[in-house]
Amino acid sequence: xxxxxxxxxxxxxxxxxxxxxxxxxxxxxxxxxxxxxxxxxxxxxxxxxxxxxxxxxxxxxxxxxxxxxxxxxxxxxxxxxxxxxxxxxxxxxxxxxxxxxxxxxxxxxxxxxxxxxxxxxxxxxxxxxxxxxxxxxxxxxxxxxxxxxxxxxxxxxxxxxxxxxxxxxxxxxxxxxxxxxxxxxxxxxxxxxxxxxxxxxxxxxxxxxxxxxxxxxxxxxxxxxxxxxxxxxxxxxxxxxxxxxxxxxxxxxxxxxxxxxxxxxxxxxxxxxxxxxxxxxxxxxxxxxxxxxxxxxxxxxxxxxxxxxxxxxxxxxxxxxxxxxxxxxxxxxxxxxxxxxxxxxxxxxxxxxxxxxxxxxxxxxxxxxxxxxxxxxxxxxxxxxxxxxxxxxxxxxxxxxxxxxxx
Length: 407
Hints:
Blueprint: H1 11-14, H2 18-24, H3 26-29, E1 46-47, H4 48-59, H5 67-79, H6 82-98, E2 102-105, E3 122-125, H7 127-145, E4 153-159, E5 166-170, H8 181-192, E6 206-214, E7 216-223, H9 236-253, E8 258-264, E9 268-271, H10 288-300, E10 306-313, E11 319-321, E12 327-329, H11 336-351, E13 354-360, H12 365-378, E14 382-384, H13 390-400
Parallel strand pairs: 7-8, 7-10, 10-13, 13-14
Antiparallel strand pairs: 1-3, 2-3, 4-6, 5-6, 8-9, 11-12
Helix pairs in contact: 4-6, 7-9, 7-13, 9-13, 10-11, 11-12
């Protein structure tokens, strides 16, 4: 006799894709330490159990799928026993590992995607996740701006390139030999008349002009001092999201541009964009000067027409590395020594042709004055914004520079 066995829904029946999970878990993967502001631990890795908890939390939120689908899923979840829910969450977590969005490492070594792992395993975000989160953030930001796609940085200058969009010009040594055939032949015939063979001379040569496309080297300076998670507001997670979105924009729409990321706190160091998701704030002060020094060093290696520093911060400079290597800190007020040394580096940026655009997540009177000084010195811009509008301001600023004249 044939038996039919009925069971409750499995994760496949819920029809939750890894992409849906990644969208819902974006804040979890980019967390900045805001949940633990009094004891920040920037070096701590995520555990597999924390990933499971985040997935379980996302299952009961409305942001995972559309409202109708979520209502159906919630009805299924309500009928599940705790053991069935636990197995569902575990399978969804391993689904992310199996499809390459996360990597699970146990204490003895790497288990591999989709392998068995205990709850004390650590979870590492992969490059695939970083790319997906950058694309998601960029899509959200451009959607709010009403934009769709962007090309390279346009300028008002003309050059002799392949894509013709301007009037032709007489050929000069060094120009791209993209000949305007009709103008070249007309010049020769006007000089010699309608006779064959037609004798072409050097002065007859005319080439197409195309719009000059400039390339830009950008260093994104992110403040990861403790103040970025204080005052009841997480300011560092939006900053990381904007960095990932900007990286995705540059890679897909401005392939000639470069982007490097510098974290500044008690000191400064470069961090790869693939590592940015794991960065958290720490119990640090704000050493803006060290960040500017490192940013200049990185930009000196780039051979680009435009060089700029984008600085995202919410506090005043409060730390300084002295000539003897010792750290000088003063978190109270605008310390004259710290400010003067920081403005010295701003002046060096100006002499090197490096523009500094500052995105301030605070609006204290003293900070406004300091940022205005930075702006005046290096001919940059200052934006006093919030974590909620930071991305719109930054992407608009980056793309608006397409109309800036170079040279």
